[in-house]
Design a protein that fits this description.
Helix 2 packs parallel to helix 5, helix 4 packs across helix 7 and helix 5 packs antiparallel against helix 7. Strand 1 and strand 2 form a beta hairpin. The protein is built from 13 helices and 14 strands.
């Protein structure tokens, strides 16, 4: 339970699954918030962790750790992480250990673990692995879209174009840390009156795990989104001006849309949930309205001057707790998928042959008609 007292609003009580105080370390933060999601992810269930709170409240530190965490892991014996490592590197390390452990035990599963690392800056998606722009496509609705999702073994409504998928199982931990350390250098940060290293964008680290069983050729696919949301800020406190001001406006706008999505889901408004009013909510639609276990990590500052922002963040977390998600494993049988595709190809070939025969018949009839007309002209 959390008790917040803000002048003018009185005392407010909030009940959460877990509460970590200022003495909590990085390991306890990870074990409490993300470790259960990682276990479910390895078992084939989608998951999502959202770090939400005002700027300067500690979200990025919790999610990634101190600035040199990843570069230090590159040079550490056995590529071991330091005790200050955050949620993202710990989750990646645990997933890789699970995959390698299954291989060592001789499990009849061929597993592929990969990740995508994106930044959403003023409604523009960027691949932090390359610095290139990323396109966001909506799959759509209807029978054709449902059939595509079934064949792809996913339930996503959006696809990413030009995004890098780093294969961790092929490259190993050391190269993964090096790639992430390089990606960290591409993040947009700036100093404000509230945070010396303020993130000026949202970041989404998406893990993908594909497990192919050699016995029945079944494919089990799962995704885990780890999101470090840009901090909400009051510009009168952060003293943001010019470009910093525009960045704050865009972050606050996308977080406002996220709030409206949460409100619509809490009200169970099946007719309209404003996912597509922001690219952030479009990207996170599977986490809120789809097939995923989702955890909201609220970062709140205990400083008296941040009371209003802490209260707003806690209220957001309480609203999110009222959303009901259903989860299931996304499994596809490769033999059945290939047979289905071969059947579709066969049907397409038959239809093409029919069209070609019909075209040939029409051409022959047209040529015969032309010959008749020419004969009539010659007779005149």
């Amino acid at each position: 339970r959390v008790l917040v007292g803000v002048p003018g609003t009185g005392l407010s009580y909030f009940n959460f699954e877990r509460v970590l105080d200022g003495d909590a370390n990085q390991e306890s933060s990870y074990e409490t918030s993300c470790a259960p999601l990682v276990k479910s992810f390895c078992d084939g269930t989608n998951g999502c962790l959202l770090a939400y709170g005002q700027t300067g409240s500690g979200k990025t530190h919790t999610m990634f750790g101190p600035p040199d965490t990843l570069s230090d892991a590159c040079h550490a014996p056995g590529s071991e992480l330091s005790r200050n490592a955050g949620v993202v590197p710990r989750a990646l390390a645990d997933c890789l250990k699970a995959v390698e452990g299954a291989k060592e035990r001789g499990a009849c599963v061929n597993a592929t673990l990969s990740f995508t690392y994106l930044e959403l800056y003023r409604e523009q998606l960027t691949d932090l692995m390359t610095g290139e722009k990323v396109s966001l496509y909506r799959v759509g609705k209807g029978a054709a879209a449902d059939e595509y999702r079934e064949q792809a073994g996913c339930d996503d409504d959006v696809l990413l174009g030009n995004a890098t998928h780093f294969d961790v199982t092929a490259h190993g931990a050391k190269k993964a840390w090096a790639a992430l350390a390089e990606a960290e250098g591409r993040k947009r940060r700036a100093a404000t009156a509230m945070n010396a290293r303020s993130s000026r964008a949202h970041t989404v680290f998406a893990l993908s795990l594909t497990q192919r069983r050699s016995i029945n050729e079944a494919v089990l696919s799962s995704k885990l989104y780890l999101c470090d949301l840009g901090g909400s800020e009051q510009v009168k406190k952060s003293k943001a001006t010019g470009q910093r001001f525009q960045e704050a406006v865009e972050i606050n706008r996308s977080l406002t849309v996220l709030g409206r999505v949460v409100d619509a889901l809490v009200r169970k408004n099946k007719y309209h949930v404003p996912y597509y009013e922001s690219r952030l909510t479009t990207l996170l639609q599977p986490a809120f309205g789809g097939n995923a276990r989702t955890t909201i990590l609220i970062a709140a500052s205990p400083d008296d001057k941040d009371g209003d922002e802490a209260l707003a963040a806690l209220r957001f977390g309480r609203r999110c707790a009222r959303i009901e998600n259903s989860t299931k494993c996304s499994t596809a049988n490769m033999k059945e998928v290939l047979e289905h595709l071969e059947g579709q190809i066969g049907d397409a070939k038959k239809e093409l042959a029919t069209l070609e025969a019909r075209g040939a018949k029409q051409r022959a009839e047209a040529e015969a008609s032309d010959a008749t007309l020419r004969g009539m002209g010659a007779g005149h």
